[in-house]
Amino acid sequence: MIILGIDPGLATIGYGVINKENQNISLVDYGIISTAAGMPLPKRLSVIYRDMQEIINTHKPQSIAYEELFFYRNVTTAIDVGHARGVCVIAGDNYVGSENLYEYTPMQVKQAVCGYGHADKVQVQQMVKILLNLKNIPKPDDAADALAIAICHAQSIRLGEEFKIK
């Protein structure tokens, strides 16, 4: 099963693609979608949608997992990132259908990848490297986070604890 993990953002969206076969997971691809700060919001969202469609059409995932947004300080940033996440969700829904879209909190991702819901970023990145049998930590951080989200979904499937987008 091909799983696409998405770490939503506006300037940088991380994506990670893994293959889950039985109890094994392996790396397929990872990277980022970038948009320029000076670009108008509708153009940025259009770039995100187009690039997300291209990633989905290239890798043909059966499931797509997104990190649930959590903001407590900057409402403007939260709204803009929410727009970008929404565009990513629409791209996913158009390909796999809403029944194959999932979301996980940062704590759930850390718990699934590290076994500890309060693990720090470095611990998560090291575990992504180990679990996918990589020589180096995937860069940039947004891509490593997206791979962690995909791994979380793979682990959740194994345990029967998937969280569909509501």
Describe the 3D structure.
By secondary structure, the protein is α/β, with parallel strands linked by helices. The mean pLDDT is 92. It has helices spanning 41-59, 75-96, 106-114, 121-131, 141-159; strands at 2-7, 12-21, 24-34, 63-67, 101-104.
Properties at a glance:
166 residues; alpha/beta; Nucleotidyltransferase, domain 5; 5-stranded mixed β-sheet
Give the amount of beta strand, in percent: 15-25%
Q: Note poorly predicted spans.
A: none
**Topology-level CATH name:** Nucleotidyltransferase, domain 5
- Name of the CATH first level: Alpha Beta
What's the quick description here?
By secondary structure, the protein is of the alpha/beta class. The chain contains five helices and five strands; from the N terminus they run βββαβαβααα.
SSE order and pairing:
Layout: E1 2-7, E2 12-21, E3 24-34, H1 41-59, E4 63-67, H2 75-96, E5 101-104, H3 106-114, H4 121-131, H5 141-159
Parallel strand pairs: 1-4, 4-5
Antiparallel strand pairs: 1-2, 2-3
Helix pairs in contact: 1-2, 3-5, 4-5
